[in-house]
Specification:
- The longest helix has 23 residues.
- The two termini are 22 Å apart.
- The protein folds into two domains: 40 residues, no CATH class; 118 residues, AhpD-like (Up-down Bundle).
- The protein is mainly α and 183 residues long.
Length: 183
């Protein structure tokens, strides 16, 4: 699929940096650079999100992937699986996120995080007091706030990518274990 918004020409320095880091220029970056202020703000926020450390990296990655699977953003699912590989997260678990309810590889905490991500993604959101209390009890306030904002950020990214027609670029092809199809 071709993005619904044309790709902008990136500065050579930025293009080279992305090619070095990821092996390809991410289409969302190319599309966002049609509005440099939006692109720069998004880049700053994304970099900031990447520095947060109150919640476990695997929980945040799996939550983002759960949102991507629910919304139908193949780009976010693809790149987050690739990032899981590079962060040395459990690829068996990461590969099963699209079918987490049927899979037996997740811990009770991971299942609650995936349920929370989906509940936040529902319209209207369906997060319950009980689910929030379970997560707050196990994660603590700082990690719970972080996880909530990560899921909100994932919703923004997945919905923008999907609306703009951005699809998988094949980042996950580098992973040894294939992604499970969405349930």
């Amino acid at each position: 699929m071709t993005p619904r918004v044309p790709k902008a020409e990136l500065a050579a320095e930025l293009r080279d940096k992305l090619l070095e880091q990821l092996g390809a220029v991410p289409e969302p970056v190319e599309v966002l650079w049609n509005n440099p202020k939006v692109a720069a703000t998004n880049e700053q926020f994304t970099a900031g999100v990447g520095q947060w450390d109150a919640a476990d990296a695997s929980l945040k990655t799996f939550a983002h992937m759960a949102v991507a699977a629910q919304v139908g953003c193949s780009w976010c699912l693809d790149v987050n699986y690739f990032l899981a590989l590079n962060q040395e997260l459990d690829l068996v678990k990461a590969s099963q996120v699209p079918r987490w309810r049927q899979s037996e590889v997740f811990t009770p905490l991971e299942r609650d995080v995936l349920e929370f991500a989906e509940a936040m993604t529902n319209t209207p959101p369906t997060v319950t007091d009980e689910l929030s209390a379970r997560l707050l009890d196990r994660l603590g306030p700082a990690a719970m706030v972080e996880l909530t904002v990560i899921v909100g950020f994932a919703n923004m990214a997945t919905r923008c990518n999907t609306a703009q027609g951005i699809t998988s670029q094949g980042y996950s092809d580098a992973c040894a274990i294939p992604l499970a199809p969405t349930a």
